[in-house]
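Why does this matter for the project? Reviewers at the last site visit asked to see concrete outputs rather than summary tables. In response, this paragraph embeds two records directly. Each consists of the residue sequence and, immediately after it, the corresponding structure tokens. Nothing has been edited or filtered.
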Amino acid sequence: MIANRPADERQQVLRSREFSGLATAVGGPKNGTFSLCSAAYLDNGDGVTGIGQGTYESTGKHRWRTENFVQISDGRRVRGEGEMDLAARSWKGTLFEMRMSLFHSV
């Protein structure tokens, strides 16, 4: 489960995750790729879904560095980077909203 909350006063998105059950990843025991599907339920009752992919790399016993990109159903794109601690069942990192820039030649 991934639950996102609206941006706080510093315009930061808050995210919590729960990892349990089966997962599918491609790669060796130390690094590889993953794909994800998620749903977020906002404080106002609305919900959004996301689909994305990323990479993982072992940084020690039960610790994994992750980087991912997610396309959200409301049109936003988010990049995340952080570290997952399986023993503590936590992920600490930063989410960045990706903005498209358009370049016009004159």
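We now turn to the second protein, recorded in exactly the same manner.
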Amino acid sequence: MADNNDDIVRLTDTDFRILEALTDGRNVAANLQHEIDATRTYINSRFGMLYDYGLVDRVGESERVGLYEITDKGRVALEAEDEYDDVDSREFTELVDGRLAERDDDGS
């Protein structure tokens, strides 16, 4: 893994709630704001960060639509949420990447 700090996943509690909500399927910030008690503007800003981290994907060709879905990496990060506070951000990133690689090797 590169030593670039941009590669380190730093998540908030809201990020985990967004990922959890997306396990039910694709969604937009306007719908999620009521479910996770955050503003649409804040959720959209976090969508951008989650996208940059590879935890969510934009659905559709238009960047303006704002429809997102969780990725396999996002699912792994969500599954490891309980371990997030126990390690620093770099270790969490390595943990998620390692578990994702194991899944890929197992064909899961």
